[in-house]
Specification:
The protein folds into 2 domains: about 160 residues, Rossmann fold, CATH 3.40.50.720; about 190 residues, Dihydrodipicolinate Reductase, domain 2. It is built from 14 helices and 18 strands. The protein has a 7-stranded parallel beta sheet with strand order 3-2-1-4-5-6-17, with helices on both faces. Strands 10-11-12-7-15-16-18 form a 7-stranded mixed beta sheet, with helices on one face. The protein has a two-stranded antiparallel sheet with strand order 8-9. A hairpin with a 2-residue loop joins strand 10 and strand 11. The protein is globular, with a radius of gyration of 20 Å.
Length: about 375
Amino acid sequence: MKISVIGSGLIGSTIATLLCNDPEIDGIALVDHNGNALTDAVSKLNSKKVKAHKIEIAHYDDLSTILSQTDCIISALPPHLNRKITKLALRLGKHYVDLGGSDITLDQQLALNDDALAKKCWLVPYSGFAPGLVNIAAMQATKEFDTIDSITIYGGGLPIHPEPPFYFQLNFSTVGLIKEYVEPATVIRNGELTKVDALSDYEEVSFNVNGKLIDLEAFVVSGRISSLAKLLEHKVNSLSYKVLRYKGHKNLLDVFGSLGFLSNNLIDVRTNTTFQDLFIRQLTKHLPKGNPDFVLASIEATGIKDGKQKSITYSLEEVYKNEYEHTSLAHCSAVSAIVCAKLLVTNKVDGQGGAAAPEAIIPFDEFEKELEKFGLAIIRKES
C-alpha cells in the first residue's frame, strides 16, 4: 500500500512517522512547498519508505505525477487548501482523506459525491481526531438507542504543564484554530440544525486524567460536527461539540475579541493585512509548541432503548508518551486519518465510492480494531 501525505508540519510529519512504522505500508510520498520543513521531517524519519517532493500546491502537473502513483492521498494542509487537493484526487481517481476544520470547504467537497462515485474513489474529509474519530464514535452511539434525546461531545488536546496567559499550545494550524473561534458553530437544537456563535454555551467541567481530577472549561467551536449534525438532524433532539480548555482561555479570547483582534478589518490596505492576520501571526510566534500533552474525548448520549431511559458514554484518554516523539493530539489525529485511509484502500467500506464524512461510511468495529493497533482505546460505559 502506498500513501501520499501532503504537508510536513506537525500533523503531516506525525502521519508519515506512523506510516513508516506500519508493515502494511510499502511507500510514502511526502509533499510540501516548504523545503526546510520537508528536509527536517525526512531527516527525522530516516526511512527508505519515504520519498520527499518539494512542490507548490498550485503546480498541478507536478503534483499529479506524484499522487497518481499512490493508493490514497492524506492532506495535512490548512483547511482552506483542501478543496484544491480534493479536486485533484478526484481527477486522478484516488481515495482522499483530510483533517477537516472548515465547514465551507466541507460543503464544497461533499458536493463532489456524484463525480467521485463515477470515478469509483472515496473523498472523505473531516477524518482527523475532531472532526473524525469523535464523529465516528458519536454515530456508533446513536445505534444503541430506539430514540435518541441528546449527544454532547467534549474534546480537546491540552498541555500537561500549561503556560500563562493562554494555558494552551499549538498542535495544528493557527489559521485553523482561529477559524474555530470566529466562524459560526453548527449544533442541533430541538431537532433542528442551527448555527450559534462560537465560544458560546460555556460551562465548567472536570475530567479525570491519569488518576487526577482536572478542572476545565468547555464551549462550542466551529468546524467539528457540521457533517454529523446534517446526518442527525430530526433524529436527535440536541447535539453539540464543546472544546476543552484550561480555565481562563476563553476570557482572554473575549478580551482580544473586544479589542478587534479577531476581526477581518484591515490594518494596512497596501498589504491587505487584517487585525486577525496580526493576531494569528503573534500567536504562531509566541504560543508554545510540541510540549507533552494529553487528549480527552467524551461522547455522552441519552435516549430510550426497549422503553427504558439509557445513558452511554464513549471516552478516550491519550497521554503523551516519550517514545512517540510527537504530541498526543498529533498522534490521535494522525492515527484516525491513517485508519480511515487504510479502510478505504482495503475496501472495508460499503459502496463503490463517493464523497462522504467518515461517520457516514466508516465501519465502527473495523475502525476501533485498527485504532487499538496504534495504542488508542475507546471505552464504553452505560447507565
